[in-house]
Amino acid sequence: MTTADNKANAAAERPGYAGVAIALHWIIAAMILGQIAGGFYMHNLPDGNQKFELYQLHKSTGITILLLSLVRLGWRLTHPAPPLPGGMPDWQRLLARGTHIGFYALMIGVPLGGWAIVSASPLAPSVPTYLFGAIPWPHLPFFDGVEDRKATAEAIAEMHELGAFSILGLFALHVAAALKHHFKDKDGVLARMLPFLKRAGSA
Ligand code: HEM
Ligand code: HEM
Hints:
The protein is an all-alpha fold. Helix content is 68%, strand content 3%.
């Protein structure tokens, strides 16, 4: 299939994502990348006020990501994504689908894991969580009877870190695919998440 065919397909076959899906995609993407950078930064700080404040901010932005991701998943389940370009091989379709499902799982699973660390922590009974210093946020109830809270929180924190690395792995794959669609296949897939590209007439 020629590039011109691809472009014709892009225009004829596929409407773009709705504005809500696009807005949620970019807000959540930016927040997650900031959250990962901030998470590693705060983790490596010496104990003190700054570390404490950054942990509180990390919890607040993390729970916000969780809530936005749940809204986004609800939206996605009720609003199907536009179909992929006609000429795309099956393995690429499968990989795209797997990456997107993996992202949804991590966008929800990683913050849930963070919430579990905080709830299991030995500090949980004495340090309540207030989102952005204002909104009381409960601890998960599952850890009340746990004997070794410290070891439990540390084990969940390991998984939380692994989850963050998994997001980075999927991110690399996802961006590489987006750039391949845009520069090699020229099939308009990136433009449906970045509508200004369409308006600029470059896809
Ligand atoms: C998508 C959302 C989130 C991402 C991508 C994320 C990412 C990270 C990263 C990269 C770290 C540093 C890991 C390390 O160096 O060991 C971290 C640590 C941490 N996160 Fe999150 N986080 C998210 C949400 C949350 C939420 C919602 C909470 C709590 C309500 C939370 C609580 C924590 C805590 C307590 C630590 C420190 C763990 C430790 O000191 O061992 N995170 N997070
Ligand atoms: C951590 C950051 C990111 C996350 C978590 C993420 C997540 C996702 C998810 C879950 C979808 C599927 C949307 C759906 O069908 O519901 C998607 C689609 C898409 N993303 Fe991202 N994304 C991120 C960053 C990026 C970046 C930086 C780019 C561009 C370079 C990008 C380009 C796209 C494109 C073009 C689509 C549409 C794919 C299609 O039409 O099938 N994303 N993204």
